[in-house]
Amino acid sequence: MQAGDKVLEKADDLPRNEWRLAEVIETVVDKDGLVRRVKIRFGDRNLGKDGKRLNKPSVVERPVQKLVLLLEAA
């Protein structure tokens, strides 16, 4: 994974159609040189009338095993 990738966050307690869409903003490289964790920014579920965000974006760190890669960054 790399910055700019579009991913879904797996949630064991939700059906797949309710998993949250996110974008990878930073990778965390482990001691062995592999990406094990990434920082992701979630998409906004509610946008204003002008299409802009209403709230500050959520940024969290997640293990790559909990993510599904949808679209690789160019």
From TrEMBL:
Domain of life from the UniProt record: Eukaryota
One Pfam family cited in the UniProt record for this chain: DUF5641
InterPro entries documented for this protein: DUF5641
Residue ranges constituting the DUF5641 domain according to the UniProt record: 2-70
PANTHER family: PHD-TYPE DOMAIN-CONTAINING PROTEIN (PTHR47331), RIBONUCLEASE H (PTHR47331:SF5)
Protein name from the UniProt record: DUF5641 domain-containing protein
Origin species: Labeo rohita
